[in-house]
Each structure stands twice: as C-alpha cells, then as structure tokens.
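Researcher: Before we compare anything, I want clean individual predictions. No alignment, no superposition, just each chain on its own. First chain goes here; please echo the sequence and then give the structure tokens.
Model: Echoing the first chain and its structure:
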Amino acid sequence: MVNDRRCRYLRVIAGSARSLKLKTLEGIETRPTTDRIKETLFNMISPQMYDCIFLDLFAGSGGIGIEALSRGAKEAVFVEKNPKAMECVKENLKFTCLEKKGLTLTKDVMNALYQLEGEKVFDFVFMDPPYNMGFEKRVLEYLAGSDLIYEDTVIIVEASLDTDFGYLPELGYSLIKEKRYKTNKHVFIEKAGKEEVC
C-alpha cells in the first residue's frame, strides 16, 4: 500500500471515472502531467479513444493511460520500472474500477517492448520519459522496425521545449503536430506519409 503522506492527487478529467482523484508519488522521481495539460491533450485525441489499445510508457502513476481507459479505450498497458510508482498505478486502476482493462509491467521500457512484441499492437503510444536523456529516440528507433504499431498508430511524446526531433524522417516518421506549453510540449508522430493525426 502506498503511504498517503508520500502521495499527492490528480484527477480523471472525463469519462467513466470522471473527477475521481488519482494518487501520484511526491518528489522528483515522477513528473505527472498536470490536469490542464492532460485535458488539452485528450481534447485533441478523444475522438479516436473509443475501443483503442493504448500504451503508456514511463507511466508514472498511470494518469494518462487511466484517462484513456476512462474515455473508452478497450485496453491500456502501463510500463513503469519504479515499483513505488507502479503501486500507485495499480491502486488507481482499482479505485477507478478499470483494473480489468489495465495490464501493468514493472520493468524497463525497452525490456517491456521486447516482451510485448507479438502479443499486442497499439493504436496509441504515449511516452513521458525523463527529459533530455534520449530515451524517446531509443523507443522510436525500436518502434520503427516493430510489429507493436500500425501504419496509422499515433505516437505522442511529452518532452522539454528544447528537445530536437529533427531525426524523425531518418527513422521513417513524420512530425504531424506539436503542442507547446510553458515548460514542455507534446509531439505527435506517425509513420511517414500520413497527412494528419487528429
């Protein structure tokens, strides 16, 4: 059980679990997406949420994947190597009555991707890795040759404002949209040749 003194709370914005408060760890080990940014993100992608399969990488307390489930996603996979953060994910899934639709993997993201290969194909991939360490590029390099995504899978990266994605064409991707906030941004990526993401 996660000690409440180490947790703070965010909320589910919309859907079946609307307004329920989610636990998230205090401190620098996790950096949860704020309610306002989460709402902006899902306003852009919510028309495509129903019945999709959603992958939440570097999941933290699971707020993004749970929001997707609340808005109608069929299934979400949560990958987070921090056991204490994953305790929050599991508690949040149980509290929102979404645990039957959530698969949790407490392991390194790259190892999780290898494990999922051949088992799942995702409509959405969201990742919020530690900033400015190149993790998003490693994941994108792997996904470029993977069977985990479709030709029209939407990949969303939360990154610092100065993160450079100029390498995307070399990996066979197109940057479809970029939404900038005060301190970070969401980058929407699809396989090259797609015209729009949402």
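Researcher: Okay. Second chain, same rules.
Model: Second chain and its structure:
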Amino acid sequence: MTRFTPEQLEAARDRVVPDVVAGGLSVLFCGINPGLMTAATGHHFARPGNRFWPVLHLSGFTPRLLRPDEQGELLSYGLGITNVVARPTARADELSREEYRTGGRLLVEKVERLAPRWLAIVGVTAYRTAFDEPKAAIGPQERVIGSTRVWALPNPSGLNAHWTAATMAEEYARLREAATRTP
C-alpha cells in the first residue's frame, strides 16, 4: 500500500471520490463520507483498519477478500458504493448536521435514479442524521425510496469498537440473505 505524508492526505480534502454504481444493483452500500486515505487513493474504505472489505467477504457478499483498488469488481456481484456526504474529512465528526441532511436528499435522488433493491447505510448514526430518524436501529428500516428498501449496518471503521468483524459479518449476512430473497 502506498504511504502518504500528512501533507498529501490534507491535500486530498479537495478530491472527489467517484461512486461505484450502476442501475439495478442488488445492494448499494453507502458510507458516511470519504476519509482522507480514500480521497488520496480514490478507493472506497481504503484506510488500513477499516473492516468493510473483510466483512463484505466474511458475510458472503464476495467470494474472496477484495482490496480497495479492486472496488470495480463489486459491480459484477450486483453491489456498489456511494456516500451520504461527498466531502472528504479526517473524521466523520467534522461534518455538520446540514451536510448530512443535504447528503440524505441527494442520496434519495441517486437511489431513485439507480433503483437498487437495497440501500445499505454503513453507520446507523449517519442514517439517523441524514434521514431525521433519531430512533433508527441496526437492521431493515421502514423507509422505502421508490422500490428500494433501506438497511442500516454497523460502521466498519476500526474506531467502532462495539462491533467485531465477526458480529458485523453476521449483520451484513442478514442483509445479503434478504437481498437474495427480494424479488
């Protein structure tokens, strides 16, 4: 993995990280916002210690452990990645409530256009804030966007000590099973 200087990471704050999307996906995973490592590399969930890629594999979404630079392969599995907020930051707490709410409105437009079967927001706090659902819990949500169902998943950040990779994989597998049942 490429090592970046603090200056290079700071310079990445101005970068846009392209979505990995297509119409009619089975699951569109939605991160909170790109971290600086993601912005520097252009690859989602690129920070060492982020458990998204291992959990995706452990839960059965991918047949092997993908690296962040292999994110394009997700499309062949009917999966994609976007973010609630596009602005890269070092920490999610740098985002304002208004950025989350604006991101939620833009996300609804994107989901209406792409029509995935499931929108999976990886971070229940991001879901609560973006969609003004303060009591939302991990799991399937009542909200439907067009024909798209919504699921809140645990945040795979290494900072989320409440969830292990194994317990996260169990929750992600619940979504995978629901996505295979969804007509």
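Researcher: What stands out in the second chain?
Model: The mean pLDDT is 93. Additionally, Strands lie at 27-31, 79-83, 118-122, 139-145, 148-153.
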